[in-house]
Design goal:
The protein has 336 residues and is an all-alpha fold. The chain has one domain. It is 73% helix and 0% strand. It has 14 helices and no strands. Helix 2 crosses helix 9, helix 3 packs parallel to helix 12 and helix 12 packs across helix 13. The N terminus is likely disordered.
Length: 336
């Protein structure tokens, strides 16, 4: 049971990161992908979250999220500065600005957390979940997040507050917490989720989730969660995020049933290295987009190839630069 559970979780991560890469091509149907692909990872993080002693909690938080995020931000900054120097647009004030933007979670392109806004927001979610105890507290946090999200999306005056601008990873907690919290509640269904082995039931659940994603994407505008956006309709945003996660879960379960009790090695590797793929895949997406400028469904194949291209890179980093992937995560894998 445990190995099977790990198998479909790993498949969900692989499918999720592949969809993120596909979405960044801004190609056919990307707005439907955006309905659920980021909520998927927040829900999965909530599902896997567990409260621990403070020392253990902060040690894992630093090793698995904060430290890799900082390294990725610095490396992206160096790459951005090299390109700017070549173009003659480099400015020295970017250096102190980087440290300030990373500290406060400002996107800032390569002079900030950039693509790692997700990691910054996830760190805040885990801090909240670690110390938020009791239903009354959690209901208050949920209502506060929904109110902040609505205010941000409906009133332009709300954007004048610096930390509440759409480019703040702190503000993104408002649209991310509902999915993280829902994922935490799904922990109670862990055994039931693992027990579903009927292919026909999984196909039916997957089709139902896919239909709800289509409804959400069709009747809602594009969801920009990185800008604390939920489109035009909050309820469609929440419905689409949960339905899409259920769809990916059903597909991951089918793949895990086909592959047996353990994942193929490349799936296991990609699952461990999603933070690396998240941090650097845009370089490959940009390269492919410049090479093939017409956007078609073939971008799906390109996205899969980009994800697979990271497999040897992840394995090299595990051996020579484990800090980039999460030191404690790599140590657990080596022990197993």
């Amino acid at each position: 049971m445990a190995s099977e559970r790990i198998a479909w979780i790993d498949w969900m991560k692989v499918l999720g990161i592949s969809l993120i890469v596909y979405g960044h091509f801004f190609t056919v149907g990307y707005h439907y992908v955006y309905v659920f692909v980021v909520p998927l990872f927040f829900m999965l993080s909530g599902f896997l979250f567990k409260r621990e002693a403070n020392f253990v909690f902060f040690s894992k938080l630093w090793n698995n999220l904060v430290c890799p995020m900082l390294i990725i931000c610095v490396l992206n900054f160096v790459c951005g500065c090299v390109r700017a120097l070549a173009e003659g647009t480099f400015e020295l004030w970017w250096v102190p600005r980087l440290f300030l933007n990373v500290l406060i979670g400002e996107h800032g392109g390569f002079v900030g957390v950039g693509i790692c806004w997700f990691v910054y927001t996830l760190v805040l979610l885990k801090l909240i979940a670690q110390y938020a105890r009791g239903w009354l507290v959690n209901v208050f946090i949920m209502l506060l997040c929904l109110v902040v999200a609505c205010l941000h999306n409906k009133f332009d005056a709300f954007h004048t507050i610096p930390v509440l601008r759409g480019t703040s990873s702190i503000l993104n907690v408002a649209v991310a917490w509902p999915f993280f919290f829902i994922g935490m509640q799904f922990q109670r269904l862990r055994s039931h989720l693992c027990a579903v082995v009927s292919p026909w039931m999984l196909v039916a659940i997957g089709l139902f989730g896919c239909i709800l994603v289509w409804v959400s994407g069709h009747f809602n505008s594009v969801v920009w969660m990185n800008l604390c956006g939920y489109g035009d309709h909050l309820m469609l945003f929440l419905l689409g995020g949960v339905a899409g996660t259920v769809f990916v879960w059903s597909l991951a379960k089918l793949l895990s049933l086909c592959s047996g009790s353990s994942c193929p090695s490349f799936v296991d590797t990609i699952s461990r290295g999603t933070i690396l793929i998240l941090g650097f895949h845009l370089y490959l997406v940009e390269g492919v987009s410049n090479w093939v400028q017409q956007r078609t469904l073939m971008d799906g194949a390109f996205a899969v190839c980009i994800v697979l291209a990271f497999v040897p890179i992840i394995r090299l980093c595990e051996r020579f630069f484990p800090l980039l992937l999460g030191q404690s995560r790599i140590k657990r894998n080596q022990r197993s």
